[in-house]
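[job 0412] stage=complex_fold ligand=magnesium ion status=START
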Amino acid sequence: LLLMEEISKVYRVGQEEVYALRSVSLAIGRNEYVAIMGPSGSGKSTMMNLIGCLDTPSSGRYLLAGRAVQELDEDELAAIRNREIGFVFQTFNLLPRSTAAGNVELPLIYRGLPAAERKRRVAGAIARVGLSDRATHRPNQLSGGQRQRVAIARALVTEPSLILADEPTGNLDTATGEEILRAFAEIHRGGNTVVLVTHEEDVARHAQRIIRLRDGRVESDSAV
Amino acid sequence: LLLMEEISKVYRVGQEEVYALRSVSLAIGRNEYVAIMGPSGSGKSTMMNLIGCLDTPSSGRYLLAGRAVQELDEDELAAIRNREIGFVFQTFNLLPRSTAAGNVELPLIYRGLPAAERKRRVAGAIARVGLSDRATHRPNQLSGGQRQRVAIARALVTEPSLILADEPTGNLDTATGEEILRAFAEIHRGGNTVVLVTHEEDVARHAQRIIRLRDGRVESDSAV
Ligand SMILES: Nc1ncnc2c1ncn2[C@@H]1O[C@H](COP(=O)(O)OP(=O)(O)OP(=O)(O)O)[C@@H](O)[C@H]1O
Ligand SMILES: Nc1ncnc2c1ncn2[C@@H]1O[C@H](COP(=O)(O)OP(=O)(O)OP(=O)(O)O)[C@@H](O)[C@H]1O
Ligand SMILES: [Mg+2]
Ligand SMILES: [Mg+2]
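[job 0412] stage=complex_fold status=DONE, emitting structure tokens
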């Protein structure tokens, strides 16, 4: 599904260069379930953003579904993001002025689905994360873990072929986290690809393969 | 140090009432190390905000250091918050336009310390969380876990007698999380009080006592 060859990402901060990724090469196939682990600052979120075409590498080649991402124009990139990829961001990225349901509905609006279909799907995704009784509440009226679950519902509602989830259980108690991981396992069983970032070994063991980053490099890549 | 008697917190959302806390009574003594656990939405952050005088209960009595918090005016409350309590918020609450060092320095500015003293303390707190090489970077130039560590440094810099830390290791890898917990243990050994919210049992075991919340009530309260 995706192939990264010698990808580096360098940020310039004043006079300094910060190397988020250093010459990373890896491939992830369709229907894989991959966990990415590593210390704070090791490049996990940067990698997720590159995989999801939310950012561009400083150097290297990235092929997604056989196509070089550099050669895609912005409309094609947006189409891939909207149709194929569900994101759970480490910082949730919810719209503060929308309700939980409004946040979950957003990718369906971008997709142009009719209102009745949107409503049905939103209700299903919200029920899946256990927040049906809070659908009309805004993010600042929800707890940290409840906001995280809204972010997860938003990622699931489009039924994407690739889920990119950055620390999706970081603010969740064990039982709620296990519910979310069951949803991801179901997506995987449905033939889709799941890539998740976590620092919890218990969570990573739900995947089939663990890629470990350190200082912007792949330290190890092994089956679970 | 603090005594809560029959504290409730009710939010009104449109026509609904959401009970964050229901008639909670508890006491936390000086030099205790307490972990608060419970499912998502069970009232943990609400409780932390009330303990830290960042919010007021809907009903009930709260005594902090022998004084009824309701009877304190805003200046007295602000003085308690600034002098006595270090906060690590679940959402970090960093100033996006300030550097890491600037964020850590903020409570010292409020306290009116001289510049040289502020600088010394900031450098110490930032070194303690392993971010000396990133002190001049702003929050959007830092990873999730690095931002969390800045928030932790800001809580430690005033050398408070009470640390309130809401999910302080949620975005941290195990090794970095253990470093932070060592810092909290050192604060506790110094005679201060630590109250932390976590959903990780491994983290909670560093405390002496675990209070478990469920649906806004204290479900259990036991020594570790
Ligand atoms: N400002 C608010 N307005 C309305 N409801 C709120 C508000 N803040 C919190 N709540 C609700 O009160 C309840 C308790 O929230 P709280 O943030 O204390 O939970 P929590 O235990 O910290 O959860 P989490 O583990 O998800 O962070 C939740 O149902 C939450 O949605
Ligand atoms: N916009 C940016 N500008 C400058 N440096 C950045 C930027 N984004 C990330 N970095 C730096 O790149 C490195 C990798 O960041 P990244 O967010 O990928 O780490 P991470 O593995 O996700 O860490 P965490 O576990 O703390 O979330 C870090 O040193 C970080 O500070
Ligand atoms: Mg990250
Ligand atoms: Mg909370």
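The mean pLDDT of chain B is 94.
[job 0412] exit 0
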